[in-house]
Amino acid sequence: MNVSSLKDSVSFTRFFNKKKALDESVPLDTVEPKEQVKEKDQGEKNTIYLDARNIWITNDGLLRDEGVLFGLTSATTMEKVSAIKNYFLERKAEIDAKKNGISGTVNELINERRKIEAELEQLAKAVVAENLETEKKNTYFFRNLLGLAFITGAAIGSFFLIHFFVTPDFGLAASIGVFLFGLFSLVAPLSTWLNPDDTNNKSFGSRSKVALLEIGSPLATTVFVSYIAYEHTQKIGLTIVIGIFLLFLFFFCGKLLLGVYHNLVEDFKQLLAVRKTAKLSRQKGISDNEAIEKKKKTLEEKITTINTLQSEILKLEAECLSLDQQSELKVNLFMSEYNLARNYSANPNI
């Protein structure tokens, strides 16, 4: 803009033709600071708020007038430039305060989200652990049941061998008694052969008594039945074979019979416990799954809220950037009018 065009500008026309300074805006003398001015038509919804103290900043026409006025008087512009910058800084401060408040809320929501995620992870681990606990363990119940049947059958069949030799001379009751006496060692609570560590700290005499208790009845029964078998068969080889067989039968069959029966009872208890645990786990799993779904829903709501607030923060940051740009533009506009008016005041005849 040159000096001749400056004379025809709106700002100079207002001053030199003595037009009203606010021919396109609200008169300053009719507006008090921070007064709310409403339009006359109450049917309209729009309400206009004017700040008379800073209207010269927000209104480009008034801002030009201020620049021209200060330029004609060659007054310092430091105060006006500071006022423009402070005005936008105040507006930025309000937005920054709002942004900080939202940021604090976002941080709280993020902490809550992390807490919920940690709880979900713990619930998931608990569900996996419960599923592992409810898995069927290798109890060998049916194998032990089959083993018990085999050992019982072997014991009954071996009884008939004793019955064949003993009953003709001594009767059935004697055969049963001899057979049970041979299995008497199965009730012994100690064993020098199966559990030698149980007697390490005992004296030699005590260990000898345990060994006699464990071996005595099978050995005595074997000798008795073998002698009767020799009298019936008069065959030394057959007698020796029968004796060895009966010795191992009484020595092992009793222990195996009692051990397998004990394992079978323990396996049955374990099966009942697993079944009960599985039932409780299913009930707890339902409640855990409901809790997981509820927490997932809450987590999704938190994430949605966080995303919304973060979008609002971005908008506020964009507003702050826009205010910085407006502040710079307003200062440049004021200084441009100021410099033009000052140059004209210094050279009015140009």
TrEMBL record:
Membrane spanning residue stretches: 145-166, 172-190, 211-230, 236-261
Chain segments annotated as coiled-coil in the UniProt record: 106-133, 289-326
Keywords noted in UniProt: Coiled coil, Membrane, Transmembrane, Transmembrane helix
Name by which UniProt lists this protein: Uncharacterized protein
Organism whose genome encodes this protein: Segetibacter aerophilus
Source species taxonomy: Bacteria, Pseudomonadati, Bacteroidota, Chitinophagia, Chitinophagales
